[in-house]
Each structure stands twice: as C-alpha cells, then as structure tokens.
Amino acid sequence: MAPARSQAPPPAPPRTLNVQRFAESRAAELESLQAVVSGRLGGDFRIRRGKRRRTTGHRCAKRRRGGGGDGDASGAEEGRGKEKKVSRRVRRRRELCSNPPLGFTTSGDGTKRLRTHLWHAKRFAMVKRWGFYLPLGLQGRGRGSRAVLKWLKNSALVHDASYCLPIQLEGPEDSIQAILRMVIIPAPSEPLQVSENPQHCVFQGVCYENAMLYDVRPPHSQLVAPVMYMWQPYFSNNKNYATEQHDTSNICSSSGESERRTLTRKLWIWIHAAAFEEGIDALRFACQRQVHECGVSVSCLSLEGQLGKLEVMGSRAIELLQKILRPTSKYSAAHENSTLEDPVLTACTSSRHHKDFVLDKMKQLQSHAIRPLLVHDPREVPCQETDAAALDNLQEDINLNSNGLATECSLKNEDILSDGSTPRSHENYLLDLKNVWDSISNTNPPVPEKTLCEEKHQRRLKHFYLDSTEHETVATEGNDSFSRACPILLLKQAEHGSPCMGWSVILPLSWVKTFWFSLVSHGAHAIGLRERRWIACNNVLPSFPYDFPDCKAYLSFMTDEAAALDQAAELRPPAVRPLKVPIPPPWDVLAAVANKGSTILKGFELDEKEFSGSTNENSLINSSTKDGPSFPLFIPRTAENLLQYSESINGKNQVSSHKEPCLVRVLLRAYREGVFEEGAIICAPVPADLSRWKTRSEEKGNEAEELWQLQLPQSYVGSFFTQLESGNWELQLPKDHLAQEAFRWPIGFVTTGFVYGSSNKRAAVAFCNANLLAILRKQQWIEAQSRRPEIFVLVRNMRSTSYRRALATVVLEQQKDDLEFL
Fold first, then answer.
1. Which residues form the Pop1 N-terminal domain (predicted)?
2. Buried b (16+ CB within 10 A) or exposed e, 672-702
C-alpha cells in the first residue's frame, strides 16, 4: 500500500499589504455594509450628544496629567518665556496629594485639612468644625447605627483623630508636677511614695492618664476639656541611679531624689481641637504663675502639625494591627542597598525591645499602657532575611522552653507586657521608649508611592533578567530624604467591660496617610464623628464636647447647631416648620429649680400665688448673672469631689443641700418602652406616679399601660419653655387645671440620646440634680420598702406630650471616677 501523501503547508502571508488594492477588491462588501448602517441610522451619521464626550476624553486626560495642553503649544510658550497658568483644580489636586513633613494643608479661609481629607471627601459628608474639615459620617440621613455597631462587634473600625492636638511642657520635673496640680483634676500624687501606686507607671512613661483640665484664671475656675497626658521616660547613664528608681523604699533618703527633681522632663497633653486654644492659654497662664511663685521657667509649646493619631476599635482590632505592624530591629536587604542611612533606623538599630515584643500578647497589656515600636512601612512586603531572623528567634525560644527555662521566660515576658517596669528589662525598655519619643516628631516622610511602584517594577524586571538600569537610577534618587521605617506609640484604651474598645496609634503626621490606606485595605471600616459618638454612647462613655455641658466648647458647638437648625427651618413653609425648642437645653433653669430646695418634691403642690398672671411670678427665669460663671452648676468627675456635696455616695443617706447646685452624670434606660432623644427633659415623678408603677410581672396587657399614662396638653408643650428677647429661655409654669395636673418639675436633661440598633440595655447619657435625685430615691425606698440603686424618673422629649418611665443610674456610684471619654 502506497504511503499517504502529506498535505502541503499553507502559503505564508505576504510581507507587505497594499491597502488600496485590498479595499478595491472588497468595495462591494463595503458598499453593502454602508447601506445597512445608513438604513439603521436613517442617513444621520452624527454622534449622539451623550457619547460625544468620550471621543475627546483623551484630551481632558492629557490636560489633567500634564497640567497643560499639547506639547508643541507648551514648548512654544516656554520658548517665549511665558509660563502657562495652572488651573485651580490642578493646583488643589497637587496640594491635596502632597505629603509635607509637617503642618496641615489649609483652604483659602484658613480651615485645616487632615492628611486623609481627599479620601474622606469622596465617601463621607464633610463639615467645617473647630477649624478643620472633618468627616461627619457616611453619606445619607445619618442612619446606619445598626451596621456600625455590628462592625464594632464583629470587625474593626478606624477613625482619623488627628484633630486632637498635643501640647508639650518641658522643664524641671517638680515644676511640671506643680503645674499639673494647679490645673489638673484629679491632681497627680507623688508617684514614688508607694511602689504599687498606679501613678508610678504614669510617671515612668509606661502608661498614660486621663484628667480634667481647668482654667484657673480669675475670676473663677472653669473646666476647659478632658485631656490625656503622658510623660516622656527619662534614662540616665548612671546605672546606680537607674536602679534606685525601682527601690522605692529608700528613694526618699537617697541622693537620687534630688537628682530626679532637677532633671528636664517633657510632658505631652492631648486635647480636642474644640478647646485647643483655650487649653494652651490656660497652661501658659499656669506656667507664668509658676515663674512668679518659684522663679522656674517651664516652656509650653504647641505640637500642632507634627503628630497624628489614629484610633482602631472593634473586636478584631488586634488582628488588624498584627497584619500591618511589623517591628524591625535591623536593616533588611532593601535598606542595606540604600545609599543614605535612615536616622530613625540608626537610632533604634541596637534596640532589643523590638525583638522581644510579641504582638500576639497585646491582649495582656493593661489599660492605658504605652508601647513604643519601630515598624516597617506597611506598604512593603517583609523581606526574607527578616522572616529568617524571626524564625531563628522563635526556634531559640523553643530551645529555651525545652531546657526547662519556660517558666522564667514566660514570667519575664508577662512582666514586660503588663507594666514594663521589671528591674531586668526596665532600663532597656525606657531607652527604647525614649528613642521613639525623640524621633517620632522629626522622622522623615515615607517613600512616595510612585517610587515604590518603580521599585516593584524593577524587581519584576530583575526576576525576568531584563535590563533595569533606568529604573534603578530613578529608585536610587527617590530614596533621598525619605524613610522606610516609622516610630509609633501604641496606646491601649480602657475596655470598660467590653472587648470592642481598641487602640490609639500616635505617629508622625506625614505617615498618617500611609497607615490609613493600609488599615482600610486590610478590612477596617472608616467612621466619622457621628459614628464615633454612637460608639461612645453604646459603651456608656461621654463624648467631647457633646457630653460636657460645663465647657465653653459645648456652648459654642450647640450655638452653631441651633443656628443651622433655625436656618433650615426658615426655608420651610410656616405650616410645616417644627416646633422651636431650646438648643442647648436651658441649664440655668435647673439652677433656678434647685434654688427652690426640696420643697418642690414634698407633695409637688404648686402655690396659687405663682399663678397670679405676672411674668416674673409664674416663671423661673434664667438665674445667671454677667459676673458669674457661664455654667452655674457644678459637675463632679470623681467620687472625692462628690463627697463634698453629699453625706454618702452610696445612696444610704439623703444628699445634703448646698448653696451651689450639683449635677451628676446618669445613665437612663427605658423602664418598659420609649426612645429618649437628645435634649429630652428628665422630670421628677409625684407619689401618685410611683404608686401606679408596677413590675412587669404585675402588669397585664394594655390595661396597666393605660393606668399610668401621663400627657401634657398639646397647647402647653410649645410654651413649656419660652424664649425671651435676650435669647435666654425660661420655664413657664402652667395656668390651666389640666396642665397643672400633668406638670412635673424638670431635674435634668439628656445630652446623648438612644442609639438605634444597640443592645437591649441601651442607655442615654444625661445630667441630673444630685440633691433632688437623692430625695427621690429616699421617697421611692419608703414607698416600695426596698432599696434599689436605680431611681425612677420621667422623661419627655422636647416636642412630645407623653412622659416615659425610665431608670436612672448614677455613674459615680458604680465607679470611683468618671474620667474616661471618647
């Protein structure tokens, strides 16, 4: 059989193609295709208006990228010696994308922008507050609290709190202590008298502390804002002196005490932007007073624009930080190839704490702990040498455990993670903390994103054995004046019984954007001011300035809110305008009610003389004077201050009367149903109301609800508070019989209402008169013949006619102080 012939290969395509001859051979096909298209378009070949922009979009893109038009035109203008004017959009884009080492970028009116402003402005509703453009919250009507609380429980949240600014005090140690005792409550005690004193860790710089900053300038002392302060740790080359700091029993008799007091120390005081100017003025006044009294000068400097602050919260906050924080202790391969030494890396290269620090044991840290770290740029992938070093350290630990030293090593690591003040590791730890503290304010900005992309492209070319000379030169030039490692301070927030509270990361301002992008890309949900307040209320923490009515920042903020609401109401027709209510709540009315004494709660009868028709007789007018304080009430923040106004803070005895009214922060929970809004009025129930209240087991259906229902007449709701010509608000006592029966004396106001979507034990934050609360509790104990810590009160929203039952819990009865805040 003859073998089959193999088919010949197809002819090769021609080397050249004559387009004209090819078109002539296909002329018939092209004409038929044109006829079909012309029939479908009706003979109109013009581009539709909606698609015309796409044909010229490449020209706009060229202008956006280059900041100008065609290259020939720009070259001609350069030849004529004229520079083409750059548009405002291009200039603003360059400004927002820049990353200077220090300072905030500002708008035309001087309003500062955060380093994450461009990211937030694309996704969040922005507001102008406290001299900053700040993210208010996600776009919408202000809802979505259920989703935020779900993220808090199951994920991680991140908030850019760089609007909280630091103030630095530098001078002799004892002088700074004297200034703190002058303006801080609670005043810091002598830290080295007792070794178990928590102030010892604060004074050593291992922990931070919360306090209330007061302005002591005459004529009266007034609260400025809650603050967080932290000491810079000191390190002495004298080993004997370093050892003496741990021997607290003999410190008073040793020569180290005098040496310690003459040391120059630094103190950082972090304060909210709403009270920054007032706070720094108060501290400078205290420093001047210290100079006049003792002749010792203490400098008070503003570190605005140097440091940033990121807050990471949620149940998975630790996991998120473990993903992006990679502590370093030596140069990696990429760093060794750099032609310029990094000053930050050089300062901390010999640090042993970064090798021993275990991020997996972050949960063991106590509240308010401070941990210094020198971490890699979170955008860079860890090098193989770093991973190998980590494996060697891990293998070394395993060998130590196998040799019977596991117990000793675990105890040492737990001591380092718990208080950082063990004798063996204390000296090295304070040296690491001091190095990070000194370098965190003057570190170089991170490597630009463009340079990192070029280096990544260079590694890819090298992997494929391609020429990379050009990219290598560009990457080398990009390493000048930039850093590949960042020193940070990791602060653990107080948990308050909830595992959802997280951490604060203090870092150079130029590194905020880098860490922000890394946190978001690893799954963190960004939140604004509104969502942050929801989280604070869900964790029964006060939020500044919303829950600090005795501060000027609160009054200023609420005044702006009232003006915005009034302006929005004027745009609506008169028939649908909402009822005007006092914003902020008339706290002066509570002072006037307190001046009446406990007689208003004895039977709750209204004197007929008070309804004679005169305006001054049937109303409680604002009682503040021009010479007196702007907030005529006192709010204690510690149990020690509350003891000055009461005989017993446990509620066993009646709170005694005082000339100056006292308000306490309380948590309101609905007795059965009801929603308490911001600004709601807390009223004192009469004995008849208490007798009709029953427990849930005794209440049967709607019959019990109808038994106790209490409502004000609709006509009286609008006149409950009346605004005077001066702008102040007064409490108008009722005149008709129905309004008199439903009238209840106000004893407090709600500052933060319920958060929708929270747990069943959701609570509102309010402030009530301490004296009247104690009288109510005593009456309720007599009525119910049982002693419960909760106090039964009535709550009515400003625009509502119905009273709702609630249980009030005094915060200072549950804890020693009320200093934690968000």
1. 98-171
2. eebebebbbbbbbbbeebbeebeeeeeeeee
536 phi and psi angles, rounded to 5 deg: -65, -45
**What whole-number distance in Å separates Cα of residue 176 and Cα of residue 180?**
6
What is the reported pTM? 0.77
- Specify the pLDDT at position 602: 58
Residues 511, 512, 518, CA angle at the centre, nearest 5°?
95
Query: Do 102 and 305 contact (CB within 8 A), yes or no?
Result: yes
SS (H, E, C) 517-559: HHHHHCCCEECCHHHHHHHHHHCCCCCCCCCCCCCHHHHHHHH
Architecture of domain 165-247+257-302 in this structure: 2-Layer Sandwich (3.30)
Residue whose entry in the numeric block shows the structure tokens 């922060």: 665
Tokens of 451: 């340079």
Mean confidence (pLDDT) of the chain: 75
Alpha-carbon distance 222 to 711, whole Å?
39
pLDDT tens by residue, 539-584: 888 999 999 998 999 999 999 999 999 899 989 998 888 888 888 8
Q: Which residues pair with 158 in a beta bridge?
A: 312, 526
CB-based contact 104:305 (threshold 8 Å) = yes
Q: Where are the alpha helices (DSSP H) in 295-364?
A: 317-324, 333-336, 343-348, 353-356
pLDDT tens, residue by residue, 388-404: 444 344 344 334 333 43
Q: What is the DSSP string of 772-815?
A: HHHHHHHHHHHHHTS--SSEEEEEE-TT--B-EEEEEEEGGGTS
Strand order in the sheet with 222-231: 184-185, 209-215, 222-231, 264-271, 165-172, 299-302
Q: How far is CA 680 from CA 199, 545, 568, in A?
A: 39, 18, 21
Encode pLDDT of 688-742 as tens digits. Answer: 777 776 544 455 545 445 556 788 888 888 888 888 888 888 888 888 888 888 8
Place of tokens 């193609």: 17
Structure tokens at 219: 């004529």
Cα 452 to Cα 475: distance, rounded to the nearest angstrom: 8
Distance in angstroms (rounded) separating the CA atoms of residues 282 and 573: 46
Most confident of 246-255, 416-425, 644-653, 797-806: 797-806
**Tokens coding 572:** 């609506």
CB 226 within 8 A of CB 210: yes
Question: What is the spatial distance between Cα 172 and Cα 618, in angstroms, rounded to a whole number?
Answer: 59
Question: Would you tell me how many other CB atoms lie within 10 Å of the CB of residue 47?
Answer: 11
Residue type for position 752: T
Mean pLDDT to the nearest integer, 153-177: 92
* Cis preceding linkage at 219, omega within 30: yes
The full set of domain ranges for the chain reads: 165-247+257-302, 448-478, 579-813
